[in-house]
Amino acid sequence: MPEPLEGLRARYADDLRSVAALRSEALVRAFATVHREDYLGPGPWRVLEALPGGYRTTEDADPRHLYANVLVAIDESRLLNNGQPSALASWFDALDIAAGDRMLHIGCGVGYYTAIAAEVVGAGGAVSAVELDPELAQRAARNLAGYSWVTVHCADGSRFDPGPQDVIFVNAGATDPQPVWLRSLAEGGRLLFPMTVANDERGIGGGHMLRLERIGAGFEARFVSPVGVYPCIGARDDQANAALRDAFGGGGQDEVHSLRSDAHEPDASCWLHRPGYCLSRFAPGPGESPIH
User: Fold this and answer.
1) 180 contacts 221 by C-beta, under 8 angstroms
2) pLDDT of 163-204, one tens digit each?
3) What is the pTM of this model?
4) What count of other Cβ atoms lies within 10 Å of the Cβ of residue 56?
């Protein structure tokens, strides 16, 4: 007799706890609670176990196929997927999402991982989900209608101003942290986004997830993990792409400790020196000015 779905979801969540080394019990419970099949449409589904591999079609429309560490095609023609659960779980865990947090999710897709976040912050928190693609935004809004504390916006995430936030998660590659993201972080607020170099004309590329935390007027910074992802439209710049390619090519990203916004000349402490900010090997300083 097949395992009941409730048990399968619990085992899936426990497997993610192990694979992604999750610290948050609330996050594990969320993965055991949210029904992934409700967000991906009827099966059979096209799944991708690891990149670069080929898609395969599930044998049937049994939702049990979705409770594995697999990507699931949303639009295979664009290589657009519902992301790998272990990766998203690890990144959410790095953000220290907690009950009552105000969270912005940029690039929400069909809303599955937004629902995971919504379960963690609970009804005492709030989640703003942003999706540029109108069709995906409509799907996300339908899928998330049961969460009264979630609002879906069809908007450009590089310019959308959500007001003060405790957590910002960006699920699309940028060459720079956008000023509105930095301005929106409350004291102690955390931002995690893919800082990526484009590898093709569509802007799909690779790099590392950068975690920033506001400490007073400054920002602690550290790179969390490698990533390959679609571009964040509006958050990419050709000159920044070239500078970031050089910086990653030189290594040393593990030495980054802060984002500086004070005016200074490039020196040996600068891992990446850009107009308006610098990723620095120094710890955050008390005299830094806020991002405008």
Assistant:
1) no
2) 999 999 999 999 999 999 999 999 999 999 999 999 877 777
3) 0.94
4) 13
